[in-house]
Amino acid sequence: DGLAAFRTFLKSEFSEENVDFWLACEDFKKTKSSTKMAAKAQKIYSDFIQADAPKEINIDFNTKNDISQNISEPTLSCFDDAQRLIYSLMAKDSFPRFLRSEEYKDLVKKQKNRNQKKWLPFL
């Protein structure tokens, strides 16, 4: 529920690509097959990194350039620097605003109601 609320909030701010990229990187790191790794790396690159990507993330030139140079032979850590940058951006910017948002207040209220119903099953 928390991820869905955060994603809804980011969508309202036109920045849901950040959490989408972070989640794609987490999925990528679990990849075992080198064939699948190459395909997933290329998908992440085309979706989030390359110029004019549909969900282009805001990272610095050097990080983008490093990924571009290494994408032909990806490793499980090839997106780590970019993922750290995006995580930091969300932690310092988006998430504090989310904690003050209506989406978060609704989430807390819904969670309180669920917890109350667990303790008071007759409600």
Automatic annotation (TrEMBL):
Q: Where are the transmembrane segments?
A: none
What is the protein's name according to its record?
RGS21 protein
* Record gene name: Rgs21
Q: Which SUPFAM superfamilies match?
A: Regulator of G-protein signaling, RGS
List the InterPro entries hit by this protein, alphabetically.
RGS, RGS_sf, RGS_subdomain_2
One Pfam family, short name: RGS
Q: Where is the RGS domain?
A: 1-108
- The source's superkingdom equals Eukaryota
